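#struct-help
A.M.: can someone run this one for me? Single chain, 434 residues.
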Amino acid sequence: MRKVYDRILDIRGNLITVAADRVSLGELAIVEKFNGQKVYASVLRFDDEMVTLQVFENARGISTGDKVTFLGHPMRTPFGKSLLGRRLNGQGQPIDGGPSIVEEEIQINAPSFNPTKRVVPKDLVRTNIPMIDVFNCLVKSQKIPIFSVAGEPYNPLLMRIANQTDADVVVIGGMGLRFDDYQAFIDNAEKAGSMEKTVMFIHRATDSPVECLLVPDMALACAEKFASENKNVLVLLTDMSAFADSIKEISITMDQIPSNRGYPGSLYSDLAFRYEKAVDIEGSGSITLISVTTMPGGDVTHPIPDNTGYITEGQFYLHDGVIDPFGSLSRLKQQVIGKVTREDHGDLANTMIRLYADSKKARERQSMGFRLSKWDEKLLHYCNLFENRMMNLDVNISLEEALDLGWKTLGECFSSEEVGIKQKYVDKYWPKES
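D.P.: on it. Structure tokens below:
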């Protein structure tokens, strides 16, 4: 039986307080305004019988005499085959002009999969991006962020990964998106022909902060349901900094004692709870999670990227329009390099990165006016080829083509004796025309 309370004791921003009993944390409620309009709210905190709720929309128009009805269950999101190709907001309501989804409702924030039912990650996820496929492989069920700053092309990078993945379902969770970013995801999915396997949960910059908190939960709840139905799911979340800022905004409104730089002490667990949804389920599907974390001022020690780095399995560091080979890391790449991929993959990748590091030093010597040796000149030639052929995000080739291009690049700049690769690989893969 639904519990109805007809007096609101306090209104502060988007938070309201009522005296209630037998309600649970996260429970959904409906606030009925005097004019008959109804808005959703969610239980955030208890203090004896004082219950604080976060209103999903603007609290303007709510009065102390309005009715609050507790629904007896937490927030749910619609689910079903008709969900594919649809766009919803942080309340699970369609924003694409289509009909309501009435097949099924599933609970968000459910417990993660049993660790004993998780499979050790061992399958490569191809992106056709050399800086990922060759040097920091993406592995199925991996959780990995893209560390970047505002203005970098991280959303186009996510779109490209979505277009070229072989995942059965792509779930996009957009937080704090501007309209042009939101429209770009739509246009991309339609142009690439992937809309029929894509679901979008969108929180725009003008929407309520609480909807921003719900977007990743709804996206991951749907991803888990698809994965339990033997689907391989790719989840793309952008931007987790907007998510963390919404947590910060709400905690300040609730007068919580702040921790580092004003963020609540629960930030680590709030992020970990979402990232740990990545899984490869024994006998069923999988969830691979790629997120974007924009670093304020490019500061990697900021609480958001700092906490994220302890949770995830590496990161892609995107700056100046390229993926930095030195700041990026995939902790699971050893699960597939040379095992799932070609035998020369590991040796070639390590050699190319080592020579690129040397070439950066040669470029510094050149900029300072030092006299360059013949070896320096070879390194400078290699540096230019590496950046154009491997680091350029416009390059779109398969892993095998990228490996062959890597051998070709080495052959154009060095002799086989200078690169330090095992002779058996040199004999097999070194370009014959060099």
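A.M.: thanks! The chain has a mean pLDDT of 91.
D.P.: also worth noting: Residues 3-74 form a domain with the Thrombin, subunit H fold (CATH 2.40.10.170).
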